[in-house]
Amino acid sequence: MSRFVYADNAATTSVAPEVFEAMKPYFTEHFGNPSGHYSIGYTTKDAITEARAKVAAAIGANADEIYFTGGGSEADNWALKGVVERKKGGHIITTTIEHHALLRSGEWLAKNNVDVTFLPVDEYGKVSLEELEKAIREDTILVSVMMANNEIATIQPVAEIGALCKEKGILFHTDAVQAAGHIPIDVKAMNIDLLSMAAHKFRGPKGVGALYMRKGLKLPAFIHGGGQEKGIRGGTENVPGIVGMGVALEMAVKNMPENNDRLTKMRDRLIKGITETVPYSYLTGHPTDRLPGTASFIFECIEGESILLWLDMVGICASTGSACDSDSLDPSHVLLGIGLPAERAHGSLRLSLGEINTEEDVDYLLEQIPPIIQRLRNMSPLWENDKPKEVNN
Ligand SMILES: *Cc1c(COP(=O)(O)O)cnc(C)c1O
After folding, report:
1. What is the Å distance from ligand 1's center to 177 Cα?
2. 156 in contact with ligand 1, CB cutoff 6 A
3. For a FRET experiment, which of 47, 87, 113, 334 has its CA 20 to 30 Å from that of 204?
């Protein structure tokens, strides 16, 4: 019975042992301030240089285009607010299904007299290139579309969006926090000007991330302070975190083909097993253009929160909506964004597998989830009252 299955890798991942080992000396013997003019300072400065090169190589960038941040949210905030400051206002286009770090930044800008268009997406969560092109105006300065969605896992046509933005002379930012280390990224080939990443989504440590800024596009400072990160992101560097991020991303890219092959098979077994055994259940997000490890479902007539409680009792970690949303009872903006009515959006479950998961984990998920859903439905007045209506559509 007491098995433990962590199926919430889209929320965060465990630090890989190799990453932890690489970080350790930077808490102890290599503690020097990278700005220090002595050997222990040069050691940490060199470690940052090496990590920067690794992060850059992983996305086809140059090392001097990588700026370390305190995570994905900071990178998203910096990209949006920085472009507005640099261009002194203008029109921004983003989507309705972005992560809150991006959405809330956009909403804040909108309150501060910036025109922001929140582009709708289709039922699979995809942005339409035609709709995007129609939304572009004379004064559009930035398009920000996430590379892969954190709730429904849909991958956007980023290269096509990049090409369109380049043709129109508009900057293109992508929140690649779910994508980096999980699917191939080439910022040059994809015409990406700005890209956000976070180490803890690819087995690096929490609280460290990066913003890639294309050469020639140096945004204004977001954290004013010392001369760190070429003077635009002040504050003594999180040296162990940065070292960990470099090692983790290098490993993730190296292991990507093998990992993704395995993850895709496990994910598809999960999708098939759940949708075929649980009545009134279906997959959300794009059926094929999706992250290799993530499967998200709707179970009609029950609440995602109660599924999580029951799963926790049998040692399964999963999520409903996004982790940041789990304290509120509002249905997920992503699920509403793909056109689901609120009552259906409430019954969502996201299972996100990662490198640490095994086929036995999938067996356990498939063994535990269907009876839990059935038990919850038996307890639910919605199931008795609403089932007949649901059957017809
Ligand atoms: C996790 C996540 C973020 C936020 O990153 P933090 O490092 O937690 O601040 C932003 N965007 C997406 C798509 C994410 O999945």
Report:
1. 6
2. no
3. 334
- Residue 183 alpha carbon to ligand 1 centre in Å: 16
Confirm or reject: Cβ of 73 under 6 Å from ligand 1.
yes
Burial class of residue 381, CB neighbours in 10 A (0-12, 13-18, 19+): exposed
Strand bridging mode 91-95 / 140-144? parallel
CB-ligand 1 contact for 209 (6 Å cutoff): yes
Clarify whether 324 is annotated catalytic.
yes
Which residues in 187-217 are b (16+ Cβ under 10 Å) and which e? beebbbbbbbbbbbbbbbbbebbbbbbbeee
Calculate how far, in angstroms, residue 156's C-alpha sits from the geometric centre of ligand 1: 17
**Alpha-carbon distances, residue 279 vs 100, 275, 306, 372 (angstroms):** 32, 7, 18, 13
- pLDDT tens digits for the chain (393 residues)? 579 999 999 999 999 999 999 999 999 999 999 999 999 999 999 999 999 999 999 999 999 999 999 999 999 999 999 999 999 989 999 999 999 999 999 999 999 999 999 999 999 999 999 999 999 999 999 999 999 999 999 999 999 999 999 999 999 999 999 999 999 999 999 999 999 999 999 999 999 999 999 999 989 999 999 999 999 999 999 999 999 999 999 999 999 999 999 999 999 999 999 999 999 999 999 999 999 999 999 999 999 999 999 999 999 999 997 444 455 668 899 999 999 999 899 999 999 999 999 999 999 999 999 999 999 999 887 777 766 454 444
Angstrom distance (rounded) from CA 377 to CA 374: 5
Give the Cα separation of 118 and 280 in Å (integer): 31
Rounded Cα distance between 229 and 310, Å, is 46
| CB contact at 8 A, 186 and 156 | no
**Cα distance between residue 180 and residue 161, in whole Å:** 18
